[in-house]
Amino acid sequence: MKTAIFYGSTTGTTEMVAGKVGELLGAEVLSATDIDRVENYDFVIFATSTWGMGELQDDWYGALDKLKDKNLSGKRVGLIGIGDQFGFGDTFVDGIGIIYDEIKDKGIELVGKTSTDGYSFNDSRAVVDGEFVGLVIDENNQSELTDERIKTWIEMVK
C-alpha cells in the first residue's frame, strides 16, 4: 500500500513526529505544501499542530483549499495532532478536528481513532463520539509517552 504523510510544521515538532511515523510505516514524508500529490497514495496521513486559539498550522490553509478539489474517495486516512493540553486546554489539537471536518464527507475510510484517556484538557474539535479522530501527541507535557503512542497507533493502522 502506497503511503504518505503530509505535515505542516512551524517549530519542527510535527515534522519530527511525522518522520518517526513515516520511518516505522515505510511512508513517504511530505510537506502539506505538496498536497497536490495526495491522489498518488492509497493511505494518507495528515499531521498538524494547532496554533493560536485553535487554528491550523499555516501550511495547512492552502493545502485544505487544494484538498477540496481532490478525490479522496476510498482512501484510508489517518490524522496526527500535535498540541499542548495544559497551555491550550480549550482548543487542544483542534487542528486535526478542522482537517477532519473538511474531509469526513469525501468518502474516506478514517483509521486510527484513539482514546482521550491519559490527557487532561477542557475541549477539542478533534474529539468525535468520545474519541480523538487520530493520534494525539503532546511533546510539551508528555514527551516521554510519544514513542509508545506512535508505536501503538502504527499497529492499529497497519
TrEMBL record:
<dbReference type="InterPro" id="IPR008254">
    <property type="entry name" value="Flavodoxin/NO_synth"/>
</dbReference>
<keyword id="KW-0813">Transport</keyword>
<keyword id="KW-0249">Electron transport</keyword>
<dbReference type="Pfam" id="PF00258">
    <property type="entry name" value="Flavodoxin_1"/>
</dbReference>
<dbReference type="InterPro" id="IPR010086">
    <property type="entry name" value="Flavodoxin_lc"/>
</dbReference>
<comment type="function">
    <text>Low-potential electron donor to a number of redox enzymes.</text>
</comment>
<dbReference type="InterPro" id="IPR029039">
    <property type="entry name" value="Flavoprotein-like_sf"/>
</dbReference>
<keyword id="KW-0285">Flavoprotein</keyword>
<feature type="domain" description="Flavodoxin-like">
    <location>
        <begin position="3"/>
        <end position="158"/>
    </location>
</feature>
<dbReference type="InterPro" id="IPR001226">
    <property type="entry name" value="Flavodoxin_CS"/>
</dbReference>
<dbReference type="InterPro" id="IPR050619">
    <property type="entry name" value="Flavodoxin"/>
</dbReference>
<protein>
    <recommendedName>
        <fullName>Flavodoxin</fullName>
    </recommendedName>
</protein>
<comment type="similarity">
    <text>Belongs to the flavodoxin family.</text>
</comment>
<keyword id="KW-0288">FMN</keyword>
